Amino acid sequence: MGTIRAGNLYGTLELLILRALELCGPMHGVGIADHIGSQSAGLFRVEEGSLYPALHRLQAKGFVDWEWRKT
């Protein structure tokens, strides 16, 4: 069996995030995680510890931007 490299997982999560934003428009982190979970029928569960580092990587690459708001 082959192994899954961490870089592949990062890339997959980043693509899922970008697709969620493309389909739904701007949303908060929990909304992104919920969308990915529901669209994958629960196959992917995105935790905060993975989501926000992925968003930071996407921001560093210029793919996303965000603003902080009180909720």
Work out the helicity level. Answer: 55-70%
* Low-pLDDT sequence parts: none
H/I helix tally: 3
Summarize the helix and strand pattern as letters.
HHH
Brief rundown of the structure:
The protein has helices at 6-24, 29-39, 48-60.
Q: Any overview of this molecule?
A:
- It is a single chain.
- This protein has helices at residues 6-24, 29-39, 48-60.
- It has 71 residues and is an all-alpha fold.
- It has one domain (9-60).
- Helix 1 crosses helix 3 (48-60).
- The model has no long low-confidence stretch (mean pLDDT 86).
Summarize this structure as a short list of keywords or feature phrases.
single chain, 71 residues, mainly alpha
What layout of secondary structure does this protein have?
Layout (H helix, E strand, L loop, with lengths): L5 H19 L4 H11 L8 H13 L11
Helix pairs in contact: 1-2, 1-3
